Amino acid sequence: MIKEFSHNRNNVIMNFSINYCKTKKELLESSGFFTVLKHYIHKLKKDDALLLERLEQLSEDRDLDIVLLELFKLLLILDTEEIKNLNPSYAAILENKSDVVDFVEGVYFYWRHLERYALIQKETITSGIEHNQFIKASTDFSNLILETYRLLEHNITNSYPNVYRQSQAGINVGFVLSHVETKLPEEYLLLNDISTINKIILTPPFIMYPIMNKREGIFQEVYTNPLKQLHIKSDHYFCYPAKVGEFFTHIYFHRDFLSQGIALANLFELATQDEIENKTPDIIYVYGARNPDNTKETVFYDDQKNNMLVGYVSNTENIDYFGYMKKMILTLHNIKMLNQGHLPIHGAMVNITLKSGLSANIAIVGDSGAGKSESLEAFRTLSEAHLKEMKIIFDDMGTFKIIDKQVNGYGTEIGAFVRLDDLDMGYSFKEMDRAIFMNPNRINARVLLPITSYETIQKGYPVDVLLYANNFEETDETINLFNSVEDAKAVFIKGARKAKGTTSETGIVTSFFANPFGPVQRKDQTLKIIDDTFKTLFDYDIPVGQIYTKLAIDGYERKGPEDAALALFDWLIETKKKN
Fold first, then answer.
1. pTM exceeding 0.85
2. Distance (Å, whole) CA 464 – CA 308
3. What is the pLDDT of residues 299-310, one digit of tens each?
4. How big is the CA angle at 426 (ends 441 and 321), to the nearest 5 degrees?
5. Which domains does the chain have, with CATH numbers?
């Protein structure tokens, strides 16, 4: 059983199954409140705050946390004059009311700037009643925090504010956990007791501040199972059962990285209990377990015996970035696709219908910062004037499968992990009610948004146009088609782009097939599938070329993708007329 209350790094986790506070008295008497109080005092001490010095001088050699806790309990029912008359030992600390108010404000501010999670832990999920009650409980808990904070300040100042701000003072995220019986092979039974997330209640906008703001290096393939060395304490971990493309994926993450795990809800479809019960997952990923020597490790293993891909990233501060969560999952997906003879695509694919009625499925390939997502953003920005409809099939990673001599595109994710700088300035604010923001105050700030449905990404759309996103060449051309398979493959395989700061790379860089998440680790295996895919495209006269997004050229960060999108619309219309 996960304990009643825990404070880890910059988050708190409350187990409502053990203790749920319904009254102000219960709240102030809870272990959670006292823990937060002590952590805030510790922060003041670390900051060498004058407020703490003054309060400690007035606490008369008593422990300040105990003095203030007892004072707050009295303030629930008495004002300051009544307290001084009842217990003169509080007279000194109440002499300067502004310091007490500042402390109350400080605790409240400290609390609201933590990531706040609550969970219900059940052996099994029986009906929707618990979920509905949980939603109500979350709302009531937020109101309880606000009412307690306001009552304390009123009884200190004997006045009411003129402006009330109905902040989300309770929890940011609630989730329901249960134990789900799955068929884990013997080698993975150390994961068997970890609770599975069944439902998530998210209160956007959810803003998180991971330590890192970019990913470094590539994930290495290893040939012995990396989970053999691990010691897993099951009540420190959670399992997010995800549908990554067509594969059922169990993502086990340490509570230190709870925000990264919860953020998956905006990216991958959460699998239901019926879909995973008594079944063996296709992919297992353990994120944030600690190596015995505390070293950083970002590796994956192809468990051919169990027909399973396994990923592992160790618990160090420099992996505290969502890219390590997302990209390892996609690497595992891509290796599994390669094993099945399909081609992983790092890029974007969209089904558009122009105002003229012309419909096309356009795939754009490119590594991080090449302009694939920015091109989709340009499509969206221009949609009112030029498009009847736009369906996103994938925005980052997809798969090409040859079915009945036709190349079809499939997606992996229902969301997009996008740089804030690459979105229209107003768009992210319009979508705040669904957004998860990551380090909005730093370079490479990100937003995670749901953008499509699982049914759409798994439908399979024939590729009508395949383009490589060229973000660095200055040219008057916008679209340039290849005349031969070999010319096309040479550009796509080289994977050149100018780095935009989304990783640790700088300048003009190359990555095999613009995809360091599977293909680069399995080049020989990928080359054969590339040959088959591009031959099929050219045999059936599917246009293959480059689109010049100019994203990395100063002054063209927005104009480049928009110009490219408009030129693509015109080109599609002209091509239709010729045919």
1. yes
2. 33
3. 999 999 999 999
4. 35
5. 5-173 (no CATH), 179-339 (3.40.449), 343-414+452-578 (3.90.228.20)
